[in-house]
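Re-running tRNA pseudouridine synthase B to confirm reproducibility after the cluster update. Everything else is unchanged from the original entry.
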Amino acid sequence: MTAENILEGHIFLLDKPLDWTSFQAVNKMKYKLKSEFNLPKKFKIGHAGTLDPRATGLLIVCTGKFTKKIPEIQDAPKEYWTEIKIGVQTESYDTEKPEILHQDISNVSEEQIKEALQNFVGEIDQKPPVFSAIKIDGKRAYNLARAGEEVEMKSRKTTIFYLDNIEINLPFVSFTVGCSKGTYIRSLAHDIGQELGVGAYLTQLRRTKIGEYKIEDATDQFLENDFKFENA
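Result of re-run:
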């Protein structure tokens, strides 16, 4: 790998760690590439598909001419390994906010859970979480929500292609989700809880695929020297 290769264009497959924003990951990588390869202060670099800070997994970073591929990669189907906790909710639909609204789940059966999950396969209407990066009147929804302002999110169409590999160890349920772009797995977790009538929130999320790119080909050592490169 040379400076010329990076400036011309490469696709980096990263395994984003917990509590890092996608922006922080790209900035760290940009600094490292500049220092190691003596790159100019400004060069083309960007990521294809944001991961929440509380999510881990595949983050694709493009440089040079491959930044033109970002819209194409973002439009590709995604896959996630997901864990939810039923019988309780949070305002953020994930672990950012404390648990609220605890409910008894003793009457919830495994059959009910599996049936509820399958009810979400196909095209669905989904409201993004108020704690999301969507802009409302030019402001990020999460900033409005954290300031205590009322936030009204509009529903949108999204598609769940499959919900597989279901494992139930109450109050936790884990599964693999294949979905279209723009799907909020936090909202899916919340909606599954509403379907069951006991509430639920997202406890773990790991992105495993974006189109043809897989987490197995990514690195979790991007803060060190172990990058994986793609030329396609």
